[in-house]
Amino acid sequence: MQGRLFGEELSVEIRTECGCCGAGMHLTVGSDLRYEVHDAGAEPLVFEPEVDWPRFTDPNIIHGY
User: Fold this and answer.
1) Is residue 48 part of a domain?
2) Which helix (H) or strand (E) covers residue 3, if one does?
3) pLDDT tens for residues 1-54?
4) Residue 57 within any structural domain of the chain
5) Number of folded domains in the chain?
6) Tell me, what DSSP letter sits at residue 57?
7) Residue 6 to residue 2: CA distance in whole angstroms
């Protein structure tokens, strides 16, 4: 989200675990919302909140919600 707000390409690496089974999960998500899963068999749900970007004026996405 920050990358889209500032017009920059950013990415973040996420290391977490499944809330149901506790299996580890490692993925990379880019500001274009493309993601790469680094663990075989992991199928995370990645979504973007519906935001009217041209009219978005809050200082960051947290304040917008």
Assistant:
1) no
2) helix 2-6
3) 666 677 788 888 999 888 888 888 899 988 777 888 898 888 877 666 777 878
4) no
5) 1
6) -
7) 6
